[in-house]
């Protein structure tokens, strides 16, 4: 059950777009369309932002989008806003019927 | 309001036991898979365990297999995590999110500290 690989940090200026990658294997990210993305502000519980690779729950701005190519999933945030500054985690269903998270990415809005 | 409230955390000595609870409200608890996810201080999220809606399917992370037991009582709208043989590395905030492959509702978490 190795964690998915995410960059430790990314940054961008307000209005810009950023992309966070999430790399796994054919036994998790590459094998299923069950990749999710979570946003977590300091001291708060995680919040679901994307499910099943590219679907947004009700209430999540359309500035947030998800995609997948092979064993790598991506979260793109366009029109970056100050309130987007947070930690972001990807997760995937695995061939062992388990769930694995990425190590997390700290997004800084400059 | 859809809500999950975790409780039962606290300070416990290495080798000790603790039972966490998660009270659900605002939705049909018996229709959803439930999970435990933990986060060590300053670290990332770690999936711990999942249980299907009728308790037919139960899964554990290797790090807790044989020491932790997940269970649920649909009549009481409650989820549990029995934690035995606790280690320092089990120190974390424990969350009980709802869902099967995506976790859409989270509680505020309960802190478990394993220290002598």
Overview of the structural elements:
Chain A is an all-beta fold. Helices cover 0% and strands 44% of the residues of chain A. In chain A, the strands form two sheets. In chain A, strands 1, 3, 4, 7, 8 and 9 form a six-stranded mixed beta sheet that branches. Chain A has a three-stranded antiparallel beta sheet with strand order 2-6-5, with no helix packed on it. The N and C termini of chain A lie far apart (35 Å). The mean pLDDT of chain A is 96. Chain B has 116 residues and is an all-beta fold. Helix content of chain B is 0%, strand content 46%. Chain B has no helices and ten strands. In chain B, the strands form two sheets. In chain B, strands 2-10-9-4-5-6 form a six-stranded mixed beta sheet, with no helix packed on it. In chain B, strands 1-3-8-7 form a four-stranded antiparallel beta sheet, with no helix packed on it. Chain B starts with a strand and ends with a strand. The mean pLDDT of chain B is 97. Classes of the chains: A mainly beta (110), B mainly beta (116). Chains A and B meet through strand 3, strand 7 and strand 8 of A and strand 5 of B.
